[in-house]
Amino acid sequence: MSKNQSFRFAVAPMIDWTDRHCRAFHRVLSRRALLYTEMVTANAVIFGDRGRLIGYSPQEHPIAVQLGGSDPAALAKAAAICAEWGYGEVNLNVGCPSDRVQGGNFGACLMRDPSLVAACVAAMKAEVAIPITVKCRLGVDEQDPEVALDSLADAVLAAGADALIVHARKAWLEGLSPKENRDIPPLDYDRVHRLKARLPDVPVSLNGGIATLEAAQAQLAHVDGVMLGRAAYQQPELLLRVDSLFFGDADPHADAFAAVAAFEPYVAAHLAAGGRLHDITRHMLGLFTGRPGARAFRRHLATEGVKPEANLDVLRAAVDEVRRAEERRSLVA
Ligand SMILES: Cc1cc2nc3c(=O)[nH]c(=O)nc-3n(C[C@H](O)[C@H](O)[C@H](O)COP(=O)(O)O)c2cc1C
After folding, report:
1. CB of 256 closer than 8 Å to CB of 241
2. In a shared domain, residues 278 and 306
3. Lesser CB count within 10 Å: N end or C end of the chain?
4. Which residues make up the binding site for FMN (predicted)?
5. Would you state the pLDDT for residue 3?
């Protein structure tokens, strides 16, 4: 995994958000950004409805699957299935603080058990040829981040992990909800920079609180990659400049209007297969954020787009709200 690969810019795994339709939409906005699935547990991959849980469209590549679990044998089996399904990377979740996840002994609480995480990585590495990466926090609860992050990193690297993605804050498993755990524990980018400085040969990506592409680019002076979660989801238009700014490629579309037009065939195919417009457009609500007409766009999709019979015309009418608002503004200006 070299610095030139898609690792430079990734959209974070986000449960309920980065499903296959969201990823297909993001892929229209950037050809190069690395896209992650929602976290899926190893047992779900092994025993569940794989088409629903890990199915994706070929155009979503480059794509990584994120697994949750702490049983090396189950994770190895799940990783093998994901590799067979064509994923380019398996990422292990060592950062999610939800109760459900703690109950199953995985996610952020694994920061306390580096040797178990290492055993999970080793088992997956033995089973698949694709990169195995780890997404973790700085530590949990009373842990000292100076010690906890190094211990976790050293253990998983010794087990063969190919890269680390660090959400640059602790998780407080006692007392904070998962949502609070994304905002309240303070960010400490310097800690991640120090990790990278200590591990010059290991790809390290920084995640957490990056709100703009400019802030993301500034991080590349210290780390090999950046991962954006909420900013990318809530303002997907920013993805339209990722290919040029992070990869030196041409951007895929001149603007968000052209991107939506290019996305229409995907939406049409989903509708033709019996899917609902809202399955897709719920991930598009942030598209025109900050522009005139953005509220009308969202409102139209939120009221009309949720109707069972909603079709492409609803999406086009929502986009027209933005076009009209921009025309009105240019007449006034
Ligand atoms: C709705 C939502 C769901 C999330 N689900 C996951 C998940 O499945 N796996 C994971 O590792 N992190 C998950 N996260 C955390 C993000 O991947 C990311 O680490 C966090 O949001 C910080 O990055 P940001 O400030 O750029 O959003 C989720 C975050 C959000 C907002």
Report:
1. no
2. yes
3. C
4. 66, 135, 167, 207-209, 229-230
5. 41
Residues in the chain: 333
**Residue numbers of the domain that contains 312:** 256-332
**C-alpha of residue 17 to centroid of ligand 1, in Å:** 9
Residues 268 and 161 placed together within one structural domain of the fold: no
Among 82-91, 140-149, 171-180, the least confident range: 171-180
> Residue 56 gets which letter from DSSP?
-
| Most ligand 1 atoms within 8 A of CB, residue of 140, 182, 188 to mutate | 182
Q: Are 109 and 140 in contact (CB under 8 A)?
A: yes
With a CB cutoff of 8 Å and minimum separation 6, the contacts of 266 are: 24, 25, 28, 57, 59, 280
Q: Report the chain's C-alpha Rg in angstroms.
A: 20
Rounded to whole angstroms, what are the CA distances from 299 to 268, 278, 315, 318, 326?
A: 21, 13, 11, 8, 17
Q: 253 to each of 29, 105, 250, how far by Cα in Å?
A: 7, 43, 9
CA of 307 to the centre of ligand 1 (A): 29
The residue whose C-alpha atom lies closest to atom 3 belonging to ligand 1 is: 14
Does the Cβ of 226 fall within 6 Å of ligand 1? no
Counted domains in the chain: 2
Tell me which residue has tokens 């950037």.
30
pLDDT in tens, 260-311: 999 999 999 999 999 999 999 999 999 999 999 999 999 999 999 999 999 9
Domain CATH code at residue 98: 3.20.20.70
Position 144 pLDDT exceeds 50: yes
In this structure, the residue with its CA closest to atom 28 of ligand 1 is: 14
Per-residue model confidence (pLDDT) at position 105: 76
Question: pTM of the full predicted structure?
Answer: 0.96
Q: Is residue 248 part of a domain?
A: no
pLDDT, tens digit, for every residue of 216-259? 999 999 999 999 999 999 999 999 999 999 999 999 999 999 99
Q: From 181, 215, 243, give the residue that closes a domain.
A: 243
Residue 109 lies in a domain: yes
